[in-house]
Amino acid sequence: MPLRKLSYLTLLGLALMTAVSVYFVAQLRFNYNFNDFYPAGDPDLDYYEQYSARYGNDNDYVLLGVEAPAGRSVFEPGFLTKVDSLTRFIQQRRHVVHVTSPTNAANPVVEGFGVFNIPYLHPQEPARRAQDSVLVYRTPGLVDNLIARDARSVTILFQTTPNLSKPPGDSLLAAVRTELSRQGIAETEYHMAGKMVAQSVFVDRLQWELVVFMSLSVVLVTVLLWFTFRTWWGVVLPLVVVMGAIIWGLGLMSACGVSIDLMTALLPIMLFVVGMSDTIHIITRYSTELGYGASKKDSLLIALKESGFGSGLSALTTSIGFFTLMTSTIRPIYNFGLFTGISVLLTFILSFTLLPAMLVLLRKPQLRVPRQEGHSWDGVLGRMFRNVLAHRRLVVGLSALILIGSVASASRIRINSSLLDDLSKNDPVKLDFVFFEQNFAGVRPFELALQPATGRSIYDLQVLRETEEIEGYLQQTYGLNFVASPVTIIKSVRKALNGGLLEEYRLPASEAELTQLVRRVKLFRKKPEFRALVLPDGTEGRLTGRMPDVGSVRAEALNADLRRFLSQNTDPKVLQTRLTGSANLIDKNNENLTLNMITGMSIDIVMVTLIVLFLFRSVRMTIVVLIPNLVPILVVAGVMGLAGVSMKVSTSIIFTIAFGIAVDDTIHFISKLKLTLLQEPSLFKAVRKTYLMAGKAVIVTSLILVGGFSTLIFSSFDGTFYVGLLIGLTLLFGVVAELTLLPILILYFYKHKPQEIRQPVPLLTE
Predict the structure, then answer these.
(1) Which cellular compartments is it found in (predicted)?
(2) 431 pLDDT higher than 60
């Protein structure tokens, strides 16, 4: 079949595939589900899902903090009237299950067969202001929970329907903000926090940043391609190929029902810069042959033949680098690794189908750069090669010193994460969360399941006393600023039965009194805060609380101390406990981060080792290839340690991805060297020739990769910022190692037919 006809058929088939992909891409949706970051398949996740089915999720709430006007107290009637109006407004909103506010908090009192709720605050009775404020500060659970200790702000907590999605969540938040504005409360006077708030902000920013970073990447890559090839087709064709691969990848993701989240949002940007490698190697070789006077057909065949093997291997190693992320138990990382890895292979397919088809149909291009000037790359690379070998001891010595320092610095890296890891310290959303940590109980939820021993009820006096002892430890030592449990229910009922007197807020002294209290608990069974603490049959209970977001390292230490306390002070024949909750699950991710990273890196290294062994049948050559690619990884690890960057979910993927991408140029180099050695018996001349042939493509692709990833440093998400910065640094160090260490190591360690190798020193003067 004639080449032109084959090219037309190829383009038609690819156009149909692209049309189908565009259909699915149009259905893609942005989403950020906090629950997706729980460790999938973990027994603790299964337990928490059952636990939340009984009591509800511990993070389905929104905290609304409202500050009193400057110089005024929250107890002033005018301010309390606004708070009460807000409370009533929120209570009437759809998807709001329950609202807790200073103005609807009440002191229950039982008289006869009825329960009377006496409010703690009376906005319409200014004369009671002093009396109300004294009562509030004496009542447990109000100060630091609903009212700030300095009486300058209050909190309204509204519970929402479980796992509320973004559209209704955004509508609810918008309605609340509109009402705040109507009440004359400025944006600087209120703060909102909670899972729903974070999800809303994250999704909106994902959409904006995806557009911005793709635009920046397109502009940057276009400029670099123009300066490299100086032809319109050298710019347009690579862009068409990579854009096609992005559309295919996103279409496949959409067809599989996967949304764009914080991780998969990186797929288009990452694929755009990574996918350029194959097209640049093909076009570089193609234009070189044209410069030597070869025909268009011969130039294309030579370019495809020489680039095909290396591009196939590099696509394989790069995709494996992403596929290894599938070892993660975190679903967004798993999806990112899977679909980016597939997209890399799709880019390879398009590079050797779409690109050749377009080159065949184009007329033979007139190179804008004359042949003599075009060889300036050879002159530059030739001088670099000579200088590297002339200063080989300095290169090796400096590399060794940098490596030793990096390893020492890398030992300072710590695994640590928090609930809002991906937001910078000065982000408005994070500052709102900090407001609740500084003025109220905090935003980090705490959950402890309470399971009475067989034959006992959660209302047994011994069970309640042990629960009370646990409460005391959690408040005094662990750091909970708010706590509620079945003990809260019994104490509240006892107080209600004794005229609402604060002195009666305690556990009963005898079983007989407890029995009477338990009978009266049914009077309060409709109160949502009671239903959320004990199962109706009393067979199980819940201890819940809130605290500041101390980070996973501190939380792990606190939990270890808590488990030690529970084992020493809790009788399993009376009460058994289990730590659970969303924060606990997020912390558990840290236990898997190191293992996942080591697993991913190990798979990458094994695959590269097998490829080099297959090509050269040499263990020495395998070590030679691995060293220049592991050195940049260790150097960046040292940078992380020196800069105090913690290892967390977002940064744990950096090393695996960086190694998979960095080894790409090495694979191209050694595959070209393998072909050159078939024609050139001298190892030195073969390495030099390969250096000149591959050097331009290595430098150009590395510049595009570094530049493309560098655009991510403008992200408002810390995780995306560090992915861009650290992978960019890894690739920058990688190209330096590629052009310095790699040729030195090959020449002095690889044994290729020693009898035919010329001595390198005299040749340096040629």
Answers:
(1) Cell membrane
(2) yes
